[in-house]
């Protein structure tokens, strides 16, 4: 059995490419890296890689992580600027004995030394989003931070190897140097080939409070199905935060065990994800949390068409309208 699961519709094309690798007995590390690079390289996805939304200083700072479930090797970068594919840098770091998590200028120095591609990751489109948000903050008093869709994945290959990985530009208009859950082991991602893996998207500051990716893997280790594990972890921690702090930020988790069974849970109204296995072609699902149970439905063609139309629509400055 092979399988791969990812957060958000934006992962579809990458999952399709990964599926071709996995069905031919390819490596879970190669498959997940290629899948995430596909998302990083697409300029219309404004929360990952090229075209990712900038921080408050209009700089694109990227976070990414990679984990090998066979060896438990981890590599991650945070707040890295001007490099094209942070997931590939993270995977390279996972092969180092020490210095596995590098941030800011240290991560950039390492990436340059290792020959990774330098690239200005701030696009014209992202600049328009930035200036429009500045206008919206002034005129509507909205919060600057809305927009934080990490691409996270868990992958299983035919050899039983599992991997997990993440990539994101983080919160829109974040403070320079801010790092969320995505590159933090146990929070944004975790995988153990003997059990399974999980990955998160949402408000990193809240996801980190519960180490939710590790918690889901721990529950699966006790024999709990990935779906129940995801619902248990998300629902319980959502309730915990509301009881202690009065509110809980967005939290959505995906998981897959070493049998190829998968699960997804969210505390938001609509969350999309993508799954492909040996018995199911890459499919986009929409999930809703209804009284603690997450109901998954395959996305309609109309929904899929509208999604891409919205991402590619022509942008104008608010002041030009």
TrEMBL record:
Q: Which GO terms describe its biological process?
A: proteolysis
Q: Which domain of life is it from?
A: Bacteria
Q: Tell me the SUPFAM superfamilies matching this sequence.
A: N-terminal nucleophile aminohydrolases (Ntn hydrolases)
Q: Name the active site residues.
A: 150
Q: Which UniProt keywords apply?
A: Autocatalytic cleavage, Hydrolase, Protease
Indicate which residues the UniProt annotation says bind substrate.
178-181, 201-204
Q: Where is this site: Cleavage?
A: 149-150
For the keyword NAD, the answer is no
Q: Which GO terms describe its cellular component?
A: cytoplasm
Q: Does the keyword Protease apply?
A: yes
Q: Name one GO molecular function term.
A: hydrolase activity, acting on carbon-nitrogen (but not peptide) bonds, in linear amides
Q: What Pfam families does the record point to?
A: Asparaginase_2
Output this protein's name: Glycosylasparaginase. Threonine peptidase. MEROPS family T02
């Amino acid at each position: 059995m092979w399988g791969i699961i990812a957060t958000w519709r934006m992962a579809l094309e990458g999952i399709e490419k990964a599926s071709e690798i996995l069905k031919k007995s390819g490596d879970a590390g190669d498959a997940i890296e290629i899948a995430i690079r596909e998302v990083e390289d697409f300029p219309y996805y404004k929360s990952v890689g090229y075209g990712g939304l900038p921080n408050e200083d209009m700089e694109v700072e990227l976070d990414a992580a990679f984990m090998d479930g066979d060896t438990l090797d981890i590599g991650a970068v945070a707040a890295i600027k001007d490099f094209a594919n942070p997931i590939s840098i993270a995977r390279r770091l996972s092969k180092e004995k020490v210095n596995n998590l590098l941030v800011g200028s240290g991560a950039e120095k390492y990436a340059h030394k290792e020959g990774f591609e330098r690239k200005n990751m701030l696009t014209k489109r992202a600049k328009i989003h930035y200036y429009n948000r500045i206008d919206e903050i002034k005129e509507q008093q909205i919060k600057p931070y809305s927009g934080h869709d990490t691409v996270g994945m868990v992958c299983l290959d035919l050899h039983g190897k599992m991997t997990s990985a993440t990539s994101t530009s983080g919160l829109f208009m974040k403070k320079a140097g801010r790092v969320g859950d995505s590159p933090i082991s146990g929070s944004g991602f975790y995988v153990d080939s003997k059990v399974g893996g999980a990955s998160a998207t949402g408000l990193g500051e809240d996801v980190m409070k519960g180490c939710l990716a590790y918690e889901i893997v721990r529950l699966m280790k006790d024999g709990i199905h990935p779906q129940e594990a995801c619902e248990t972890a998300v629902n319980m921690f959502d309730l915990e935060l509301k009881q202690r702090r009065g509110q809980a930020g967005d939290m959505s988790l995906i998981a897959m065990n070493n049998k190829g069974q998968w699960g997804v849970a969210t505390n938001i109204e609509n969350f999309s994800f993508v799954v492909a296995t040996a018995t199911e072609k890459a499919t986009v699902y929409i999930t809703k949390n209804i009284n603690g149970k997450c109901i998954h439905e395959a996305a309609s063609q109309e929904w899929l068409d509208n999604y891409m139309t919205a991402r590619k629509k022509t942008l104008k400055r608010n002041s030009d309208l």
